[in-house]
Amino acid sequence: MLKKLPLTLQSTTLWDYPSQHYGSKMQGSQFYQGATPSYIIWNLLTRYTRDNDLIVDPMCGSGTTIDVCCDLKRRVSGYDIAPFRKDMIKADARNLPLDKDQADFVFVDPPYSDHLQYSQEEECIGRIKAEDPLYFEEMEKVIKEIHRILKPRRYMGLYICDSYKKKSGFVPIGFKMFEILCRYFKPIDIIAVTRHNKSLQKSQWKKAALEGNFYLRGFNYLFIMKKE
Known about the structure:
It contains 5 helices and 10 strands. By secondary structure, the chain is α/β, with parallel strands linked by helices. An 8-stranded mixed beta sheet has the order 1-9-10-6-5-2-3-4. The chain is globular, with a radius of gyration of 17 Å. The mean pLDDT is 92.
């Protein structure tokens, strides 16, 4: 079991925290595939938001953002196309039931291609391969919607990873998504977040990567952007 470190603000652009959750309780669910490490959201909200600010997560997953907001006394609206919990609102991230210029901060951790099955919903972006240009077309709709609901001069964070598949090869999702983000927002910083995925530690995965001459995904991008 990974040891939990004291929860402190990160001061460099390389973030490394060995546990999925901080403190003595769980944020989100350890049983949800692809759950966001909660310390990432904690760091963002501590830096860029204040008490009672409205935080929006348009792809809320296991509810990590909701739980961190509760800890930090932030208001929160968590949306998902296939809600995992009762305190989430069923909605498509490309068409949120929220008026423009309402959110004080938006955090989104979207699917990274179709590596995981998030839902049976036909419209789920997680069903689209990153090799298909449609993936980036649909993700741009998500970015435009985030821009619509975010207040001017406020911030958003997008957490994402590149994709590699043996048959189709490498897709630089991070670079492509950053290019899309820059069409709508001003870039503030790019963070590299160390991945502590259990699969990375399995000897068979390491062996396959060496024998197949490819790399396992060792980090995620965290793009911090501002609406001008």
